[in-house]
Amino acid sequence: MAENQVEVVDVINVIMKKYIGLFILFISFFAFSQNENNTYKKRVLENTEVDLISSFYGQDGDNAAVTGGIGTEKLTDVATTITVSIPLNDNDIFTIDATISAYSSASSSNLNPFDASGASRGGDDDDDEHDDRSAKPTAIGPATGSPWVESSGASKSDVWVNGDIGYSHASENRNSIIGANLSFAKEFDYTSIGVGGNFTKLFNEKNTEIGLKANIYMDSWQPVYPTEIKSYKEVNKNLNDGFFEGVDILDQNGAIINKTGSTVWSPFNTTLVENKSRNTYSASISFSQILSKKAQISIFLDVVQQNGWLANPMQRVYFGDRANYYIGNASSIANYTSPKNTDVFQLADDIERLPDTRFKLPIGARFNYYLNEVVSLRTYYRYYYDDWGITSHTANIELPIKISDTYTLYPTYRYYTQTAADYFAPYEELLSTSEFYTSDYDLSEFNANQFGFGVSYTDIFTTRRIWKLGLKSIDLKYSNYKRNTGLTAGIISAGFKFVMD
Predict the structure, then answer these.
(1) What is the total count of domains within the chain?
(2) Bridge-partner residues for 184, per DSSP?
(3) CATH of the domain at 302
(4) What is the pLDDT of residue 464?
(5) 38 in any annotated domain
(6) Which pLDDT does position 140 carry in this prediction?
(7) Which residue in 112, 364, 370, 376 has the fewest CB atoms around it within 10 Å?
(8) Spans of biased composition, class Low complexity (predicted)?
(9) Other C-beta atoms within 10 Å of 138: how many?
(10) Is residue 20 within 8 Å of residue 193, measured between CB atoms?
(11) Under a CB-based contact definition with an 8 Å cutoff, are residues 211 and 179 in contact?
């Protein structure tokens, strides 16, 4: 298995070298093929700009996908993004964008829910599919777990990193802009490489703008699975070996089953991730028009096609037409779907299965209107359709209120509603006769409301300075999000823009 890891890394290195080479060639062509003209013209970007954004996000809910549509959804995430825009000359800008996000997820921790009791069975709690050891029991006492109790497994927390480099070139008359970008992202269970390009054309004395954009993202899974399914395959279906050795399995009535009998627990489908790639191809077109001195409208259309393994192998499903089996305290089975259950866990019937293609079509519009010197209106609407059966509507309104030359307040409201995917059903309502199935509530029918409030400070003269950086603006914002399914979330963000001498 280690050889497979090396092969994946080698392939990624080859791809990165290939696209970085093309990207550098692209930059060189435009950076050194400029019109030699000594007459003065305004630069696209006068000085290097640095944007720094940090945020803290927290959520809670009762429909965790990792535990089959029930269980704690507690999650916290701290993220920081830095963007550096560098003018190469009058017409060209080079951009570097980097994000690091550290999160802790109670739901993800329950890939191995039995770690909460110390019953990791031989210390194999890293959920590494490349570790073929049959874990032996080392814990004393029965194994217990619960979808409502956060485990101490290695999948409890992780760090997501993303990097993006971009280049844009503006024509001499500033009526055409062409650009390209290359991105890389990494998390514990996937790696992503992206490449894209964009073109913008301005007409009608720059009152009309048309934009085109295309991106390709090539993702590679390093799949991790629920502990019971992974362990079942490792011991070749022997429930008296590895993780299962010495562990009692209970039926729906709480009775201990005979592991060598005819009626025992087994995963419905032991075929796991077969295609470890997930590719996304997107293209978009946008149109923007200044209607008057006070009004502007823009319209956009995106076309997205995804291919590959699109389901999440971490997420369990439970079928209503199959018998239930558990590990833990028999007396808690009656309260399994209640947070009162702290010491019994239901063994999965399968992992989430979804089609290997998905087509998405969002279309939307923005309308901004300058009411007066104090108040402006910003509105947004988007309609979304995909061939999994989801349609959604998003409406957003923001009302910036300028209270001084430097300070602006901006209350916001966002409403979202969607239909359910064809393959979604709640816990224990799926059927094993279906080809595809999920209990991920992100694919369920729901509506959500989000209220936000922000304050912005702007100093176009950058009178406040840190070293060689002049502070141009500060943005602080808080948003509160609620779904009718019970999920609640809040995010606090702070953004700083600096201009370098």
Answers:
(1) 1
(2) 163, 193
(3) 2.40.160.40
(4) 84
(5) no
(6) 38
(7) 370
(8) 105-119
(9) 11
(10) no
(11) no
Residue 442 domain flag: yes
* Per-residue pLDDT tens over the stretch 271-283: 899 889 999 999 9
The CA distance from 155 to 120, in Å, is: 13
- Going 100 to 105 to 111 to 117, the CA torsion angle's sign is positive
Q: What are phi and psi of 309, to 5 degrees?
A: -80, 105
CA of residue 387 relative to chain centroid, distance: 20
Which distant-in-sequence residues (6+ apart) come within 8 Å of 365 by Cβ?
Answer: 297, 298, 299, 300, 380, 381
Comparing CA positions, the residue from 445, 260, 274 lying closest to residue 351 is 274
> How many whole angstroms separate alpha carbon 148 and alpha carbon 150?
7
User: Is 42 a domain residue?
Assistant: no
CA distance 443 to 418: 9
Angle at 301 between CA 299 and CA 302, to 5 degrees: 145
Retrieve residue 286's tokens. Answer: 């946008």
End-to-end CA gap in the chain: 52
State which amino acid sits at residue 9. V
Strands 357-370 and 391-398: unpaired
β-pair type (326-328, 357-370) = unpaired
Query: How much is the CA Rg of the chain, to the nearest whole Å?
Result: 26
Give the residues of the chain that fall short of pLDDT 70: 1-41, 115-142, 153-155
Dig out the tokens for 17 from the structure. 């070298």
Q: Residue 9's pLDDT is what?
A: 39
Nearest to 175 by CA among 132, 218, 205: 205
- Cβ neighbours of residue 369 under 8 Å, at least 6 residues apart? 294, 295, 296, 376, 377
- Tell the residue number behind the tokens 């490449």, with chain if given: 195
Q: Residue 216 is which amino acid?
A: I
> What are the CA-CA distances from residue 26 to residues 155, 181, 183 (Å)?
40, 10, 15
Domain that holds residue 481: 2-32+48-500
Note whether residue 414 is domain-resident.
yes
CB atoms within 10 A of CB 330: 16
Q: Looking at residue 27, what is its pLDDT?
A: 47
* Per-residue pLDDT tens digits for 385-407: 999 999 999 999 999 999 999 99
Burial of 65 (0-12, 13-18, 19+ CB in 10 A): buried
- C-alpha to C-alpha distance for 163 and 100, rounded to whole angstroms: 9
Identify the helix (H) or strand (E) that includes residue 288.
strand 277-290
C-alpha 220/C-alpha 354 separation (Å) is 17
Torsions phi, psi for 15 (to 5 deg): -65, -45
- Residue that the structure tokens 């609620």 belong to: 482
Biggest CA pair distance of the chain: 89
Location of structure tokens 């029918």? 445
Residue 375 structure tokens? 């108040």
Look up residue 90 and give its two tokens. Answer: 């009058």
